Request: fold
Amino acid sequence: MRPQKYLNLLLPVFNTRRTREILSVNPVIPIEREEATEVNITVFEYNSMEIKEHRFKHVKDCLKFAHNDDFVHWINIDGLRKTDIETVCNRFGIHHLVIEDILSVGQRPKMDEIEDFLYGLLNMLYFNSTNNTVEQEQISIVLGKNFVLSFQEDAHRDVFNSLRDKLKLNNSRLRQRGTDYLCYSMLDMIVDHYFVVMEKLGERIEVLEEEVIRYSNNRSLARINQLRKELIVLKRNMAPVRDLINGFIRSESDLLDDRTTKYFKDIYDHIVQANDLSENYRDMMMNLQDLYLSNLNRKTNEVMKVMAIVTCLLAPATVIGGIFGMNFDIIPTAHNQWGFYTAVGVMLFIPLLMLFIFKRRGWF
Reply:
């Protein structure tokens, strides 16, 4: 195999590119967002009696749903383009600071109350089983009177499929409540999906723990470092969500019904539990690293012990051979016909006696 092929095998394990991706967030440096090649717009128009679903490819088609108080509107835009976002937000009267946050890259999860709108920004998390990495997708949610706007980066995946199914049920609670309950349901599903990602990471940690206990090698250490990086991504995206949910709980906006506050408190409990679980995973990874180093030291000690025993066992033979190898004319038993066999016998007897003594003392 050529050297390049060896490098291709090692790069997935000893990969520093992932470290640069995790630590490359710098809010001081503005990052230009790449324009989406595909934009999908889904509009749910519903009340307690009926529901209509619309799908568009151009944002101008959804502008007609602005300022319609007869229905609750959920307008979901998959794929971000600057001109599209500005067109929609200007039509709904959303502040330009919110537009900047929607178009931002690597923004910290947060909640803002600007004018007559509530704005929440956080990340949906997914686990890539192929690369064993945690992937994130930024989502922005704007809560207004009789409408909810959601902006997603990826047009092909999200965690809202079960929410869409519930909306289509006539007797569902979603259909009976207002936009604040819809906003709660979206945040609840995002937070609940964090546990799915953590479950996948937990499975990888269990497999790695058995690997480290049974046989430790350099690849095990590389996997430990890789999982620690993914836990950093997980923690960095989940920890600020607690403040985001707390902002909805403490908000005195007329957009939030008092009955909905207890539901946001339920999300708060979930995100606190998720943060505690991520801390437990972090402690487990630290313990795994300590276990790996302990196993490495134990193996080194075993090797040194064997080498020390072998050296001690060879010492008598070395001494006896050195004595009889001295360049003197008169050496006892040197000219005796049994002298050689006697010397060899002593060389064997003393190491065997030493082995017996070492065994009795429990040195090996």
Observations:
- The longest strand covers residues 117-128.
- Residues 1-13 have pLDDT under 50 and may be disordered.
- The two ends are 41 Å apart (CA to CA).
- The first helix runs from residue 3 to 10.
